[in-house]
Amino acid sequence: MSQTQAAPEIEVTPGVAAPVAPVSSASVLPGHPQPLVPIPLRKVSGRRPSERRPRILMTTEGTYPYAVGGVSSWCDLVIGGLPEFDWQILPIMAGDRRLSPIFELPTHAKMAGQIELWSEGLPRRRLVARRERAAEECLPAKLMRALISWEGSYEDLLEALLWCRRRPDALRRAFRRGRAWGQFIEALEEVLGENHPDAGVAPTLDAVEAARLYQTIYWIARAAGTPTPETDLLHVTAAGWAAIPALVHKQLHGTDMLLTEHGVYVREAYLAAARSPSSQGERFLSSRLARGLSRAAYTAADFVSPVTEANATWERGLGVDPKKIRVIQNGIDAPESYTAPPGNLKVVSVGRIDPLKDVQTMLRVAVEVGRRVPEARFEYWGPPTKGQETYARACEELARQLGAERHFKFMGSTKDPQGVVRDADVVLMTSISEGMPMSILEAMAQARPVVATAVGGVPEVLRGCGIVPPPGDVHGLATGVVTLLRNPQLAARLGERGFARVHRFYTRAACLDGYRDLLGELTSAAMGSA
Amino acid sequence: MSDESQGSQYATGVIQARLGRGAQDVLEAAVVLEAWGGMRATAALSLGSRVVPPKAPGWIPGRFTTEESGRRDSILTEALALIMAILAVASWAGPLSHQVGTSTLEQAIVIALPLTLGLQWALRSRYLSRRSGLACLANDRMIVCALGLLVIEVPLVLLHSYGPLAGMFVAIWVGGTVLARRGWALAYGLLLVGAVVGLRQDVSAYPLLEGLTAVIVVGAVVGVITGGGRSDEPAGRVGRALWAGAIGLALGGLLVGDSSLGWGVHGAFPALALLPSVLGSFWGGYYLWKFYDAVPRGLQGVGLERANERDARGAAMSILLGALLRLLVTTVVLSGVVIGLSQWTSGTNRLSLFVGFGCVALVTMLVNLLESLAFARWAFLAALASVTTELILSKLVLAHSALPGTALIAGTLVGIVVALPPLLRLLMRPGRVLATSLWIQ
User: Fold this and answer.
1) Which residues in chain A touch residue B64, judged by CB atoms under 8 angstroms apart?
2) Do A198 and B233 touch (CB under 8 A)?
3) pLDDT tens across A117-130, in order?
4) Which secondary-structure segment (H or E) carries B342?
């Protein structure tokens, strides 16, 4: 799908970035002063007879098919539920370990390779007679400037990423050049000295933090250098690393790009950085990098399909053209009937152990509920997120310190989340960031009342069938849980309303219909123009 | 005070309370206010720069932490295995040359030593230097065994009389590296001592070594299968392992390229003469592994303006000098001890030999450092230049030199000249070496 701007069509020559037109917008909010939208491109490759099945290249980041979680479940649902498309999956994963897929791909889906970050693998060498020494030496600085600067240039980013795709075998050499490091440091000093009211004042960085950024930028270049297969549509599942190969592919072939956001990537990155114990410099760089990647993804996307209106609000605030946004809510396979709550005073939570889930607040809620309803029992089902094992240990330690162990148990993973929810009287969620949590939909589908923090799409989903205190409000959350435990009639009524609401708005079929329409529209446009 | 101003003050207070500092930028302010301040995203975003402090936060340099690496352990075990192998060669030399003939033994050692070093370097690069090295090796055990058998052992067995003996040496020494990595160095040592006793008791050499080879190979296979456990750590790059193997091969060639050394001819010598420099080399090499930790640690708190500056007293140069010092002191002191034991050194107990082996240790360390910084080609070039010079001098120019080890010394000096300048150029800039070499390989 092309942009609606009245701009001349241009033909894309590999290796040359297309001009990008700034769009003036009165609604642009701080942080994204001047969104950039690429001029429509005429497709020059990837043409196939229109009778063939439409192909979609889905890029994922740390999720499907190698990890469990909400995004992976969503990918599985969409791919499995839409067999009329040929799906190609390109996951981006940390390459420090061998991975086995957790999800089995259906017959109409196949892997299109994978991008292993921080691995030892190298791209295949190619015989190139001429070395582009100058281009190699300025590549790291150019990429860094485009991604870290508050007003980094999308054109420059694309130009650099396209160079990476053309010369993947030169990337290691480029980044190992002493002059490249020198130029990178000079550029970084300039970026840190930028003066923009919204950007605040950058912290002082040291050489180690700069070297870490240099390494990260190298892996961005490597991700851009990975080849992508011919496709009719690019479906990016997060506005971060997953967008990198798609940005390059779109620029090379003019293929449309759809971005589905479950959370809001940049928001979650800022939240994670704000809570992390790392240095000021590391926090600054990680959040700025996420912002740079998100800006690029939003600019390149022809459509953005958040899973909840709450995300759409953020996306508009971050400068995404409202015309590009189409909310498609998640859905689940809800049972036709439900069982009554068991009356066992059990409160469950299903989700990964992650700072974004604010498990520590949940522990405090459990303690307060335990004071008021001593028979209440809390169960937390789910493993720690990879890389958050320290946080999980801190939660266990906090449980000991608070004396919550009598009421609260970490149960580990479950293969039967529906059964876990069915066996509870109340479902609790204390997240500080969510898109549209599947665990809440599952609770509603089992007719269980929910107490959840008012983040992301939660208030929208739970309208009239749950209790929604503000995030971090221990007293409010505990009061909600106690109210439901002490008043089974109210709990049952809320559960029934949730059940009805899921059947009305959040079914798997409705979700799939939404994607079928949008993907069909985008792929048929692509195939029709071929 | 206006509502707008009050709102900003409240927002700033919430951010300060939650983060213990001001917001980094407007996005962080909005995210914090929404997540913990109960504010809607649009309202939070609209506060804009009013909630961003105009001053930079005070500088608190980051803390650098490293994960425990298995690489230093692996170099220790490798050292242990190599030392045992050297002692075995020293002890076996007399009885073996008596049984199989001096020429056969010499040729077997000349073939086996480079092959062993090549295999050890390759195995270390791809598997044994990793935290889960044995598990990585276990994953590829079939292909490694098949390659070892087809590419090394079968051709050796088909060679002339010395081939089978060389094949057994290779299997015993390389197997010993694996056994040592498994933690079975003591058992390996006992097996070697048993073989020494057997040979001294005039047990027939071939059956004895065949038995020893079989036990060590089976032990190594069992060690790999039982010792690795499950690991999802991937093995190293094949290409890099091949380069490492080539470097090891060249360094092994350097040890045997000078015919004046007389491997197998002079009894326990020159194997025993090699021991001081090997110990020095491994101590220096062990110290060099601090690199991965000390270089970033030394750069903590170093501002960007100095991130690309020369620093001859920086962590990188200090570690190199520390390693060189350790190598030098150990080699000199232990060489003196070995020379002092005159009854062991009858034959070629010339000082030049010890100097030559000391130079080998030095060039090995430099080449090792280059390889570990992923300059494998340069490292190979240095090793190749050494061995080529040595061979040319040994065969053509110094064939009848009265001073043993002259060609070896000349060869290693060439290697040092090739390896040292690029290393110094790199290590003089610690920021650059961290960013471009240690963290991008």
Assistant:
1) 208
2) no
3) 988 888 877 766 56
4) none
As a whole number of angstroms, the distance between CA A356 and CA A262 comes to 14
What are the domain boundaries of chain A? 10-20+52-121+140-324, 346-506
Please give the average per-residue pLDDT across B88-103, as a whole number. Answer: 81
- Give the span between the Cα atoms of B261 and B348, in whole angstroms: 7
- CB of B431 within 8 Å of any CB in chain A? yes
A432 CB near a chain B CB, below 8 Å?
yes
Interchain contact, B31 vs A267, CB within 8 Å = yes
Residue B299: list chain A partners with CB under 8 A: 206-208, 211
ipTM of the modeled complex: 0.89
Fold of A346-506: Rossmann fold (3.40.50)
Q: How many CA atoms lie within 13 A of B322 on its CB side?
A: 16
B132 touches chain A (CB under 8 A): no
Which runs of consecutive H residues, i.e. helices, occur in A306-415? 309-317, 359-372, 389-402
Contacts of B22 (CB under 8 A, 6+ apart): A200, B12, B15, B16, B52, B53, B57
Q: Does B270 sit behind a cis peptide bond, omega within 30 degrees of 0 on the bond before it? A: yes
- Give the torsion through C-alpha atoms of A202, A434, A62, A74, to 10 deg: -150
Domains A10-20+52-121+140-324 and A346-506 agree in fold: yes
CB-count burial class (<10 Å; 0-12, 13-18, 19+) for B99: middle
A206/B302 Cβ within 8 A: yes
| Cα–Cα dist B125/B127, whole Å | 6
Architecture of the A10-20+52-121+140-324 domain: 3-Layer(aba) Sandwich (3.40)
Q: Is the pLDDT of residue A479 over 90?
A: yes
C-alpha to C-alpha distance for A358 and B104, rounded to whole angstroms: 73
For residue B245, list its beta bridge partners.
none
How many CB atoms lie under 10 A from the CB of residue A322? 11
Would you call B49 an interface residue with chain A, using a CB distance cutoff of 8 Å? yes
Residue A69 near residue A237 (C-beta atoms within 8 A)? no
Q: Which residues of A touch B302 (CB under 8 A)?
A: 206-208
Q: Which residues contact B321 (CB under 8 A, 6 or more apart)?
A: none
Q: Which of A110-119, B35-44, B263-272, B314-323 has the lowest mean pLDDT?
A: B263-272
Q: Which of B232, B436, B439 has its CB closest to that of A97?
A: B232
Give the DSSP per-residue string, A218-280: HHHHHHHHS-----SEEEESSSSTTHHHHHHHHHHH--EEEE--SS-HHHHHHHHHHH--S-H
Residues 6+ apart with CB under 8 A from A371: none
**Stated pTM of the model:** 0.86
In this complex, which of A208, A267, A470 lies closest to B64 when CB atoms are compared? A208
Segments making up each domain of chain B, as ranges? 3-51, 71-236, 256-441
| Contact present, B415 and B268 (Cβ < 8 Å) | no
Cα–Cα nearest to B164, from B105, B226, B232, B228? B105
As a whole number of angstroms, the distance between CA B305 and CA B285 comes to 32
